Amino acid sequence: MAEKVLMKGNEAIGEAAVIAGCRYYFGYPITPQSELIEYMAKRLPQVNGVFLQAESEVAAINMVYGAAGAGARVMTSSSSPGVSLKQEGISYIAAGELPCVIVNIMRGGPGLGGIQPGQADYFQATKGGGHGDYHCIVVAPNSVQEMAELTVLAFNLADQYRNPVMLLGDGALGQMMEPVDFHNLPVIPVEKPWATTGMGERDKPNIIDTLRLNPEALEAVNDALQKKYALLQEQEVRWEETFTEDAELVLVAYGISSRVAYSAMEMARAQGYKVGLFRPITLWPFPKAALLKAVDKAAAVLTIELSAGQMVEDVSLAIRCSRPVHFYGRTGGMMMSPQDVYQQIVEIFETKGGK
Amino acid sequence: MAEKLFARPQSLLDVSTHYCPGCQHGIIHRLVAEVIDELGIQKKTIGVVPVGCSVLADQYFNIDSQQAAHGRAPAVATGIKRVHPENVVFTYQGDGDIAAIGMAEVVHAAARGEKITTIFVNNAIYGMTGGQMAPTTLVNQVTATSPYGRQLAVAGSPIRLSELLATLDGAKYIARVSVNDPANMTKAKKAIKTAFEVQIRGEGFALVEVLATCPTNWGKTPVEAKTWLKENMLPQFPLGVYKNIEEVKQ
């Protein structure tokens, strides 16, 4: 493969999954992620993998449950309404502690919504989505290159922690083309002695179940899950920050919004406004401590999202409500421009009295 | 030295089950386990158990297994079988599981010709949740959610799943059997064995529908239940082989 290839974000996820050792994909078409299912349909047979178009998102995620339980590196992908359908299976996968990668290329909602980019599945992705106390690890790329890198990371983390990992993108990232380098993506293989492979030489069966009729046993399962989540919050938090050291205003944005916010920050800096940008890369676990540190010099925070302000809650909690958190967002599949965000920045500075 | 003529199948663990008195899941478990033993596939078989009365079957079979969400067993089995095509994968499902919430999954697994075996236990009622109406509940049958009897005008007629699935090309063996008496149990075991052999030969989807009793939720003694099955279920759900690729070949 050439040093860098020009690729759509959706396709980059597919190729990175193949590099990560994913040989099983179960999915169902939906815009704006269909290039990914199409890529897997073409690519997996070339590497002796299995591509299967399921009859529904519900079936697809349960095929993932079966394949993950059987020890495979397996992926599914969808967009917002389809991911809602997958929530049943994701809860079971989290309960069964099965590793898999779920891609959500978000579009505007609620309901059928539209097919333009959105980020309004933040709550669903980071707070559970299905029933019960569980978390997916949620990674949020902001470039085609990162879609590749975080896909490989997602498979590694899934296996390491026996946990579903959601790659949360959006229609803009999925559809945009950028050069991507597939070299040096570290793949970490993990043994799976717990998988259902047929007993073979084992004396005892491997069983993957999620029913605990004894309340004490179920509480023990929940305690163990929470212990794992605490470990994740300690060890697997990822973020990026720019010009936060002296920032009087810290922008917080992830995914495609962070690209817009970056441009707005550059415009503001050029005008002498001390603005920084904090970008969570893991949305769960959320980089709470890092954000608190990043706002040290800041008088206020501005959160920018393609939603009605879902990440605002995590931002406010992370900084312990110590500063005002402003919000600017668009919904419906509308994209804000850097000028829009710049305007918000200027307004905040003017309200609190100058640069 | 005495010769042992009858013993617990190796594929069935020596544990007490939670099933109600007179329930026939125990018999059907045993038939499946005997078939697995006779085919010598215990070490390569992976079971998928459903939501419903047999949700704990993975605690009774001595094989690797996964527990599926309500109705999703054929999708879970598909995922397993695609990863391990050399293994034998079967689902064990009740009527609510397979013919209501999981209808899409079983229809499409059959249509794909998924190389799995499905044991479908039809007792015309939801057992585990306390005796509510199932898709297989007979017209005028009283259940917790059809207290005046299943009304045709409101709830439609029972679904004959075997006949329905037999229309699909990917389904290679579809049979309906019953375990209401010893003669039928023998036939049931033969059908279950055939359904596993169809998978082992890599031919496609195989399903055995097993008519069984639910004395607790039918409000009958075990003996009355067997009579009720014979008199009411057999006319609605005729026994027989609905699809057999071997016969088609001949």
Overview of the structural elements:
- The complex is a heterodimer of chains A (355) and B (250).
- Chain A has twelve helices and 15 strands.
- Chain A is an alpha/beta fold and 355 residues long.
- Chain A is globular.
- The mean pLDDT of chain A is 97.
- Chain B has helices at residues 25-39, 73-83, 95-101, 103-112, 152-155, 161-165, 182-200, 215-218, 222-236, 245-249; strands at residues 45-49, 64-67, 88-94, 117-122, 171-178, 205-211, 240-244.
- Chain B has 250 residues and is of the alpha/beta class.
- Chain B has one domain (25-249): Thiamin diphosphate (ThDP)-binding fold, Pyr/PP domains (Rossmann fold), CATH 3.40.50.970.
- The model of chain B has no long low-confidence stretch (mean pLDDT 97).
- Chain B contains ten helices and seven strands.
- At the A-B interface, helix 3, helix 4 and strand 9 of A face strand 1, strand 2, helix 2 and helix 4 of B.
- Chain B: Pfam families: TPP_enzyme_C.
- Chain B: This is 2-oxoglutarate oxidoreductase subunit KorB.
- Chain B: It comes from Sporomusa sphaeroides DSM 2875.
- Chain B: It is an enzyme of class 1 (oxidoreductase).
- Topology order of chain A in helix (H) and strand (E) letters: EHEHEHEHEHEHEHEEHEEHEEHEHEH
Helix % of chain A is 40-55%
Q: Major sheet of chain B, described briefly?
A: 7 strands, mixed
In which order are the strands of the major sheet of chain B placed? 2-1-3-4-6-5-7
Question: How many strand segments of chain A?
Answer: 15
| Helical content class of chain B | 25-40%
Structural class of chain A: alpha/beta
- Summed over residues and divided by their number, the pLDDT of chain A gives a mean of 97
CATH topology of chain B, which one? Answer: Rossmann fold
* Total E-strand runs of chain B: 7
Residue-averaged pLDDT of chain B? 97
Rg of chain A, Cα atoms, Å: 21 Å
Count of helical segments of chain B?
10
Give unreliable regions of chain A as ranges: none
Distance between the termini of chain A: 49 Å
Whole-number total of structural domains of chain B: 1
Pair with the biggest interface: A-B, 39 and 37 residues
Protein name (chain B): 2-oxoglutarate oxidoreductase subunit KorB
Enzyme class (chain B): oxidoreductase
Keywords (chain B): Oxidoreductase
EC number (chain B): 1.2.-.-
